[in-house]
Write a structure and sequence with these properties.
By secondary structure, the protein is of the alpha+beta class. It has one domain (3-176): Glutaredoxin. 39% of the residues lie in helices and 15% in strands. The protein contains six helices and five strands. Strands 1-3-2-4-5 form a five-stranded mixed beta sheet. Helix 3 (62-70) packs across helix 5 (98-114) and helix 4 crosses helix 5 (98-114).
Amino acid sequence: MNLRSIIFKLVSITISVCWISACSNSTYQAQGNAGYLNQGQAKDNLTRTGEISAEELITRYSKFARQYKNYQVDPLDSVKFARLSNMEIWVFFGLWCHDSQREVPRLLKTIEKNGISFDKLRLIAVNTKKEIPQAFQSRFSIEKTPTIFVVNKGEIVATMEERPKVSIAKDLLEQVFR
C-alpha cells in the first residue's frame, strides 16, 4: 500500500468519525438562535436551521428524498399510527445527521400513508451543536438528533431520540397509549 492510499484512508476515516460524532449524544447548550432561520446561511445547505416544511425537505435534500422514496411503511404501523392524528408531532433534526436522514423520511412516509395532516407536524432543523431556535427553548430541549415529540393538549406524551427500538410508530404509540 502506498503512502497516498494510506493518507486517503486516514482522511476518510476521520471524516466518517466526525459525521458520526455529530449525530451522537452531546450536551445540549442553549445559546439561542433568534428566529426560525439563521439569516447568514443558504436556504438549501446542510447548515440551515429553523423550521422547514415536509415538502421542502423531501424535494431539496437528496438523502431525505431517497430514504422517503425507498421506505415501505408496515401496514400494521400505518393503521395504528392513525391514532395520533389529533396530536402534534414536533421533530428536531439535523440536515447533516445520518440518523435524521434515515428516520425523518420514515416518519414522513408513515404520516403520509395515514392521511394525517402535515399541519400537525413541525420540522425544526438544528445546527451541529444541537441548539434549537430560541422560540422553542422554553418548551423543548434535545441531546440527540433526531428527537421526535408527540404533544397532546400542550403536554409531551411521547419522545423518540436518534433511532427507534422497534419502529417509530410502535415506539411512540407504546408511550402514548400505555
